[in-house]
Amino acid sequence: MEPTKDSNYIQQHLANERTYLAWIRTALAIIGIGFLIVNIHFSTNTSLTPYSDRLAEMIGILSVLIGLVGIIFATVHYVRKRTQINEQTFKPAVHLVWLISGLMILMVILFFLYFYLY
Questions:
Q1: DSSP characters for 56-92?
Q2: What is the 3 state secondary structure string of 33-65?
Q3: pTM for the complete prediction?
Q4: CB atoms within 10 A of CB 91
C-alpha cells in the first residue's frame, strides 16, 4: 500500500479535524443555549414586559442561525484547510472568526437586554 498525499501531513490533518469538531461542538452549544432560554422563558409564563417574549424568540432564532452558520462555515473551512495543508498554502480563517464573533456579540447584547427587561 502506497502512502497518500494526506499521509505526509498526518498531524496537521488530525489538528484540522480536532478544530472542525470544536467548531461543531461550539455551534451545537450555541443552539442549545438558545433553546434553553426560550424553553425556560415560555415554561415559566412570567413575562413582565411585552418585549421579553419577543426578545426570547429573537434569542432562540438567532442562536439557531448562529449555530447553522457555524456548522456550514466550519465544514467549508475544514475542506479548504485540508486542501491547503496538502498544497502547503495554509492561510488563517480571519473572516470566519470575525463573522462568528460578531454574531456572538449580537447574541450577548440580546441576552443582556432580555435579562435586563425580564
A1: HHHHHHHHHHHHHHHHHHHHHHHHHHHHHHHHT----
A2: HHHHHHHHHHHHCCCCCHHHHHHHHHHHHHHHH
A3: 0.79
A4: 8
